[in-house]
Task: inverse folding
């Protein structure tokens, strides 16, 4: 289905798919226009509803998860991700709310790396402590492009297949990268993301999703009372420019130890050099599971709503960023400003600056190989 031809016929949300239901409710997908980009390209917003009434609004602009409604322990649905109501606001200014990130998620020191004897210069679009680096794919990362979209329902599970062809040289990266991302809203209340990519030239690839969560609901204050547990005995400490030093350090005895449950706010103001560099948590955890199988990376629990979220991934790392750069300047979907630490991200990934860190797992994809990785955000209550 060509979305542009569909969008031109659809102004109000209309049901475009309904699943076959056997006892349970039917999964549905509706679609509406999400407005035009500056170049006049149409964008669409797809509402995926699973058999339990859990809903995700996803746009093909940046593959952004715009809304995600999940129940609290009383069954009340709240939107647990930060974001905007219009594509225009995402285009104007976003700290990557809900977006797909690539070609390299996270930072590359000085925007430079060497591959097969050649030095590649990426756009430097970020400079923590005045030290320039490449962040989240550059000035025109995958969060800022329009993806081809194909909604589908299989086994009463609604999904959205997104495709983007990232050309050789884009933002300085070598090789044409053919990318498919599939979102599914499964009936165990999971948002499942499958990333697939192939290339015609060796290139670094590290895709992720940059959703900011607040399990109380977006706009409902800070996330410091959320309780985390990570299956990660180590993390990658950084320098002042938020680039890993190359060390894999034990979390034991530090505020980075979430091997047992701790509230985000519990140790965030501890006198700790790493916490100073990040302005709070903004680090990559080395997940205990390193074999590429799907494993539980961590769990987040919000006591007042009773909501929890599990993160499952095949990736070896996870960036936990707790919204230290949010400063009230972004006004979200319900008209509320997003202030300091009003949302947190759990970005499953390979480690930051991987192309320059020989001891980290490689992110180089070669022609003939397939980049294939899955991450699941599963929601429940207790
Ligand atoms: C990074 C932060 C960065 C933020 C941008 C996160 O993934 O870890 O350092 O500022 O993205 O919004």
Result:
């Amino acid at each position: 289905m060509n979305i542009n031809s569909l969008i031109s016929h659809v102004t109000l949300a209309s049901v475009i798919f309904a699943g076959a239901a056997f006892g349970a409710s039917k999964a549905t997908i509706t679609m509406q226009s999400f407005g035009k980009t500056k170049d006049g390209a149409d964008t669409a917003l797809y509402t995926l509803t699973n058999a339990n009434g859990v809903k995700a609004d996803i746009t093909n602009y940046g593959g952004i998860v715009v809304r995600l409604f999940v129940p609290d322990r009383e069954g009340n649905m709240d939107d647990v991700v930060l974001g905007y109501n219009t594509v225009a606001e995402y285009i104007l200014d976003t700290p990557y709310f809900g977006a797909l990130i690539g070609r390299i998620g996270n930072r590359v020191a000085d925007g430079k790396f060497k591959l097969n004897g050649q030095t590649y210069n990426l756009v430097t679009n970020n400079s923590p402590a005045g030290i320039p680096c490449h962040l989240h794919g550059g000035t025109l990362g995958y969060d800022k492009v329009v993806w081809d979209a194909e909604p589908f329902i299989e086994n009463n599970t609604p999904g959205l297949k997104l495709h983007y062809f990232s050309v050789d040289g884009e933002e300085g990266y070598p090789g044409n990268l053919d990318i498919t991302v599939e979102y599914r809203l499964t009936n165990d209340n999971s948002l499942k993301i499958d990333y697939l990519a192939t290339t015609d030239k060796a290139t670094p690839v590290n895709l992720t999703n940059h959703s900011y969560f607040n399990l109380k609901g977006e706009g409902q204050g800070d996330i410091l009372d959320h309780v985390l547990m990570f299956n990660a005995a180590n993390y990658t400490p950084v320098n002042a420019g938020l680039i890993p030093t190359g060390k894999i350090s034990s979390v034991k005895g530090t505020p980075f130890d979430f091997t047992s449950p701790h509230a985000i706010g519990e140790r965030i103001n501890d006198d700790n050099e790493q916490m100073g560099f990040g302005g709070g948590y903004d680090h990559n955890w080395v997940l205990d599971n390193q074999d590429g199988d799907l494993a539980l990376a961590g769990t987040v629990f919000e006591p007042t709503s009773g909501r929890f979220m599990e993160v499952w991934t095949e990736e070896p790392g996870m960036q936990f960023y707790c919204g230290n750069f949010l400063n009230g300047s972004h006004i979200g979907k319900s008209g509320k400003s997003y202030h300091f630490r009003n949302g947190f991200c759990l970005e499953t990934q390979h480690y930051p600056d991987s192309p320059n860190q020989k001891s980290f797992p490689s992110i180089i994809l070669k022609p003939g190989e397939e980049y294939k990785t899955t991450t699941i955000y599963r929601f429940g209550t207790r």
Notes: The first strand starts at residue 14 and ends at 18. The pocket of beta-D-glucopyranose is lined by residues 95-96, 242, 282, 319, 321, 325, 345, 347 (CB under 6 Å).
